[in-house]
Fold each of these.
Amino acid sequence: MSKKEVSLKYFPYLLHPRNTVLVTTVGKDGKQNVLAVAWITPISVNPPYLGISIKPGRYSHKLLLETGEFVVNVPTFDLAKEVTICGRKSGRTLDKFKEAGLTVKKAKIVKAPIIKECIAHLECKVVNSIEVGDHTFFIGKVLAAYVSEKHFKELYDVKEHKTLLHIGRNKFTTTQDTYKEIKL
Ligand SMILES: Cc1cc2nc3c(=O)[nH]c(=O)nc-3n(C[C@H](O)[C@H](O)[C@H](O)COP(=O)(O)O)c2cc1C
């Protein structure tokens, strides 16, 4: 296998395709926003923490600092265009929910909304934020988590759930119907 050197500015793409989500936020004036996030990770189960890496300058970054609340909404592969709109335009100048044709609904606990077209929602409260290089890593405590029964039993049913995986630029892929279960 021949291997080539990759410029370090492209290193993240050696770790893609990555599960991509829509993160909804709310400002202290009640204004709601949404952005696409591929750099998300679970951190701890008990207590339940997850992390999102957000670049300062994004409108969502300002709203996260203002109210410290957000919802992670899990889209499916068929929402690739809507996710791209949320990931290429800023809520500072337009209503992305309207632009992408996404429906907001009230969340159970936090003031940030959920997106009806997504299949799972994790309501979070920021408990810490760390400036790391050119991004801020926001650590959220998960306050509520719910998912479409059709798509998730004890794990995602890959026959039903076509995950949205970001390859890079505006390219996405998804998972297959088949899976391997390894017995050791
Ligand atoms: C598929 C995809 C994934 C993205 N992932 C991230 C991410 O993890 N962190 C981030 O800061 N920006 C990410 N972005 C860029 C933001 O979503 C984008 O800058 C967005 O327009 C910010 O919107 P806002 O200004 O309304 O907050 C991603 C964009 C796309 C298209």
Amino acid sequence: MAKIQFFGAAKTVTGSCHMVTIGRHRFLFDAGQFQGPWELEKLNYKGFGFKPSTIEALILSHGHLDHCGRIPLLQKMGFEKKIYCTPPTADIARLILMDSAHILKEEFLWKQRRLTRAGIKMKEPLYSIEDVYFCMELFGRGAPYEKKIQIVPDVHLSFHLNDAGHILGSAQIVLEYKERRSIRKKIVFTGDLGDGGRPTVDDPAPPEGGIDTLVMESTYGDRDHKSYEASVEELEEAIISTVRHKGTVLIPTFALERTQEILYHIGNMKRTGKLSKRVPVFLNSPLAINITRIYKKHCDYCSLFRRQHINKKKSPFEFPGLFFTETVEESKAIHGIPGPKIVLAGSGMMTGGRIKHHLKHLLWKDSTTLIVVGFQAEGTLGRRIIEGAEQVHIFGEPVVVRARIYTINGFSAHADRTNLLNYAKKARPKRLFIVHGEPNAQAALAKTLKRVLPRTEIHIPNLGQHYVV
Ligand SMILES: [Zn+2]
């Protein structure tokens, strides 16, 4: 008999963390950070709801912060066993956790200055860079897709290929175990599922051969995305028309996956002659630059390299006129270079990072085009701009918005409603838990799933709830 319990991403999108207990062994799927409003983020400071020292193994689906962001905390609180993931995920998680520790420290120092003046004592940051180093020792060399690993007697783990189609190295976790003498059972955790048709990752498909329990994400359980092809066309049009007028294209980037996807499409424009090789493209985000290097290092995991037989020494994300600008000096020098030019810079929601400096210099010019290719959460600078603000404040100074703004929605790395339904129909599990979604999206998905899979038990678990499976 096995038990599954949900300690994160339950009726919310972030904080992915689910525990499976088989016999006396406890296994954890993901240890992600809660992100968003303070009501959610404060859950990071409240412990896990279980003793980390009792966990036999942590199995990580992919390297996004909402899936790996509490690993240093887990280790700090007593977890000392092995972490299983694919090799690219181990490298990506290291960079993402380092970046997170750095941001946590900055936030802490900033808040501490203000609160100390007000006589309030601050708690320590969630974890430090040293904590990240310690937890990285628990990562092995990584497990490739489809390799069956015995974690404890009678419990086997594998990462299903096709991959989860979400980001480089993203994996669907398959846990097979023996119940009583001869009954074999299978639990599958989708992690985050991609939308299919992407250049960098494979289309997701469920493992074959009967699934007893499926834990499935539901981020877009209630809506479909705009077509990917139409979004690529829109991106090309926005770039071409700006370059024609010798303007600057600014693209706020999410460092992981979106940056590489956009670089690939810009490279294609140059390769096919839609964009002159002379137009400079600046990748102005140290994190995005490092992650792009990981894509090259793990080219065997990137479907672009595999499918198109691209020379492995030549990255599909590099092309004539692409400059990796890492230092602050290089970043400032971009402003002195006349248009046309294209600048990709973090952060994706324009809340911090170098994009804010570029916006301050360029948002008030009508020769600028701002192309928004990612989700903009409520309360962010990006959200205010795409909602049509005529003026915004950047570093305390008012800046009028004269740039042309494009919001392109079809680049999502998550499966939409139709693709989630198609996946579940192919998987046909005996029981299905819907996680990683807002309540409305989950309820809408559950309603349709009950109709299309009448024999499957469907559950939307609450935080902390457990089930016998
Ligand atoms: Zn993800």
